[in-house]
């Protein structure tokens, strides 16, 4: 976990009123750290807007404005600016916390009233911090309660009555029944949702592993039925399905994605279901695909088979592929083989949580190559530009694609 994500978790806990006194004191002590300010901006963006605006105010500049506000000057009289532009904090944590809360409110107020893309100079926009995605997700319980998984400490156990949810040292979520229970009276479903710029790993009750990509959602029972294992997927996930038998018979594992149903006859596969296209890539074992439209022929996949199902045109295309490209995301990389620039930038937008605008008519530019998903955004764009025959201009969190 990098430093920005560590700071982000601390800020999330503070804003959720879950931080201890020691953590609050640590947070205040970090307020002149530029990395901490990047983390604050990141958390604010994640939690303030459903639709992300094109740019955001500079936290350093906004802090200076707040320090000049007469309502705060008295309370922060011992907050002194140094020659390098940072601040020395010489007050107890609770006094500075009040300034920090004023800072939070002023940032939101300042955005709505003063800052737009057109008013910010180009050089300032290009410096707006954009960080790669990280482990973050929301779990939605059967009763509708939502839990921010990034706020849970490692080795946390959540008691849900009949079953337990555990977050281990690696951040993975897993399920188990209590010792005195062998079954759950009713089928109980949970849902995990990853935002843009997030991913998460889940171990289901049968031992099956699921790695969920950014902007995705999976609904699953906390305890599977003895006759059928059914999950519902929107977005992209990689599955390693565990074997499960009942009285000597295999219990089927089904993944429902839109108008496609996948039945697992083996173990490892990837499903990508953004928009109208559902792409299923088999790594190991066998799977069978069927479709809501009964006129479409069932597809039996063996290793390295890939099926692309267009839900609009109701067309099914099957071919042999190198699964390396479909699985690169779960291994921390972007990997493309003659992919269109539009397809490449769709991946970038989802992972870095940015907006993409196409300023010119593109002439079929394509890109091939492998890049780390944790690369600096500007270095990533330079690499794509060099190999893909396009140019980029970044203004805050909006990236313009040019010929």
Overall mean pLDDT stands at: 80
Number of helices: 10
> How many strands in all?
28
Oligomer: single chain
Structural class from helices and strands? alpha+beta
State the shape.
flat
Radius of gyration, taken over Cα atoms and rounded to an integer in Å: 24 Å
Q: Which ranges are low-confidence, i.e. pLDDT below 50, for 5 or more consecutive residues?
A: 48-99, 105-120
**Which band does the percent of strand residues land in?**
25-35%
Query: End-to-end distance, in Å?
Result: 37 Å
Fraction of residues in helix: 25-40%
Please summarize the sheet with the most strands.
Answer: 19 strands, mixed
Question: How would the blueprint of this fold be written?
Answer:
Blueprint: H1 3-15, H2 21-29, H3 34-48, H4 59-67, H5 70-73, E1 80-81, E2 87-88, H6 93-113, H7 122-125, E3 134-135, E4 138-140, E5 146-148, E6 156-159, E7 163-167, E8 173-177, E9 189-194, E10 198-203, E11 209-212, E12 216-221, E13 229-240, E14 245-246, E15 249-250, E16 253-257, E17 260-264, E18 268-273, E19 277-282, E20 287-291, E21 299-301, E22 305-310, E23 315-320, H8 324-327, E24 333-340, H9 341-352, E25 355-358, E26 366-372, H10 377-388, E27 391-395, E28 398-402
Helix pairs in contact: 1-3, 2-6, 4-6
